[in-house]
Amino acid sequence: MFTPLFLKPEKCPNARNKLGSLCRVIPAPLALMVGVGCIRALAALNRAGYVNRFVTPYNFAVTNPPTRENILHGIIITDLSAALPWPLKPRVFVPFIGTYRYSSVRAHWGREQGPSDDIISVIFMVAEWLHGKLPWRSLGFDEDRICFIKTYFYKTKAFKKLPREIRGVYKYLLIFLPLAFASVLLIKHTSKYIRIASAERFTDCAEIRIWEIYRKMYEVACTTAIDFKWVIGEFGKALNKRDPNGEYQIPSWLLIEQTDE
């Protein structure tokens, strides 16, 4: 038996969703444990020769009961409707697949998604749990603005609240996104966003390095393999810093009453 980690508000009236408090923020150890469990599930899917492309909190479930061990090692994927065999030959244009909230920028750009995009979606999930919201939450279905803000995610408060190890994973994964941000402005965005980008002054050294990464993205194929073991290790380091003795207790609100429905 499995318990869904996330439920619609009407299914869980005492909380905004299953894995979340009323203030939308959950403890860092729990957020990181779920992140590790989700990445392990995606790694298993990747070993089977597939990429998910539809990573969202609502598409995962945990083995009953939701203990620490089951969260770390027993999370499963419940929706594989968008999964594709991987690696595959990149198509010239791919219709949008995923969610505006959690999909990586590549999905908005009409590019083929790979394992790195699945991991980036998990990082967005963890950032939302730690910060309480993602920077583009209030933008609704304005895809151009969502895409623009996702491109600058590394400069947001939500990103800065991530553990250092997770920030490092995200920046590492940037080099696996094959479309340069400058090209997106020319191809995807309106002249309004081009003017905004032209006004930016990349004077900070860190920003210059990030800009150089974006300029080189064309050279990298989306089918580049990802070392899931390394990614899980980095998440594990972040978890060990916040729960070094493994004493964190799973909160009672994570449990749901079993019904006959």
Task: Please render the helix and strand layout as text.
Layout: E1 2-4, H1 28-47, E2 50-51, E3 60-63, H2 68-73, E4 75-77, E5 84-85, H3 105-108, H4 115-131, H5 143-151, H6 157-160, H7 164-174, H8 181-187, H9 191-199, H10 205-215, H11 228-242
Helix pairs in contact: 1-4, 1-11, 7-11
CATH superfamily: Transferase(Phosphotransferase) domain 1
| Side-by-side strand order of the widest sheet | 1-3-4
The largest β sheet comes out as: 3 strands, antiparallel
Helical content class:
40-55%
pLDDT below 50 for ≥5 consecutive residues: which ranges?
Answer: 7-18, 177-211, 213-221
Number of discrete domains: 1
Find the count of extended strands (DSSP E, 2+ residues).
Answer: 5
Radius of gyration: 18 Å
**Average pLDDT, to the nearest integer?**
77
Judging from the principal axes of the Cα atoms, what is the shape? globular
Give the CATH architecture. Answer: Orthogonal Bundle
SS-derived structural category: mainly alpha
Distance between the termini: 14 Å
Number of helices: 11
Q: Per CATH, what is the topology?
A: Transferase(Phosphotransferase), domain 1
Helix and strand element order: EHEEHEEHHHHHHHHH
The share of residues in extended strands comes to: 5-15%
- CATH class, named Mainly Alpha
Protein name: Protein kinase domain-containing protein
InterPro entries: CK1_Ser-Thr_kinase, Kinase-like_dom_sf
Keywords: Membrane, Transmembrane, Transmembrane helix
Transmembrane segments: 169-187
